[in-house]
Design a protein that fits this description.
about 220 residues, alpha/beta, DNA polymerase, domain 1, 2 domains, two-stranded antiparallel ribbon, 8 strands
């Protein structure tokens, strides 16, 4: 049995794509840029919000100044609207509860900015005692750099063989590989199953309850 289970947030614990799309489209529209269909955002997210804005901007407009302009509009809007349509994936709360009951230490490692990561986890999983809730923080490299995984492992007192990392994208699969821990892809998230398969994680879960078997 594993000692520590670390989860990605967007596309793994919560389906947040509609609120991310709406908030980015709000900022793009306010600046006179074209917007995108919600499904397009499944391939924009995953590497932090600055990279999200870069991908959402028209190619000729992709520069640091425009990214920061979009960010300045997105963040206050998203802070208000980040739970309008976002919801936990069916069964994920029950999985977390069972893992907690079985003594597995739980943590979150997301590339979403820290304020929103913490707010959403506390709102949707108030009864889960995560040992750490980490989003993107100043001075800490974003995933797939494994620094955040190592930081959580140190806090938990868990070695690589005792740790499992769960996510829905190529970024998450590479994070697990870089950290040298057991890695699980989840097919209910934002990216296609074929993307997960190309990284050869130890497991791919198609249903939330399968996570219990992989972690045990």
């Amino acid at each position: 049995m594993k000692k520590l289970a670390i989860f990605d947030l967007d596309g793994t614990l919560l389906d947040t794509i509609a609120d991310l799309a709406a908030s980015t489209n709000y900022a793009l529209s306010a600046c006179g840029y074209p917007t995108h269909e919600t499904d397009a955002y499944r391939f924009f997210v995953g590497n932090g919000i600055n990279k999200l804005f870069e991908r959402a901007l028209p190619k000729p407009e992709r520069n640091e100044g425009n990214v920061l302009k979009i960010r300045s509009l997105f963040v206050p809007y998203y802070n208000i609207h980040n739970a309008d349509l976002s919801r936990p994936y069916p069964g994920i709360t029950e999985v977390l509860e069972k893992l907690q009951q079985n003594g597995i230490k739980l943590a979150v490692a997301s590339n979403k900015y820290q304020e929103a990561t913490y707010k959403l986890i506390k709102q949707y999983f108030p009864d889960i005692d995560f040992i750490e809730i980490f989003g993107q923080r100043e001075g800490v490299p974003v995933k797939p750099d494994p620094s955040v995984i190592f930081e959580i492992m140190e806090k938990a007192g868990a070695g690589k063989e005792e740790t499992i990392y769960i996510g829905d994208s190529c970024v998450d699969m590479q994070t697990g590989i870089n950290a040298g821990v057991t890695t699980v892809g989840v097919s209910w998230g934002f990216r296609p199953r074929t993307e997960l398969e190309s990284y050869h994680p130890q497991y791919i879960a198609d249903r939330t309850e399968e996570l219990l078997d992989y972690i045990r």
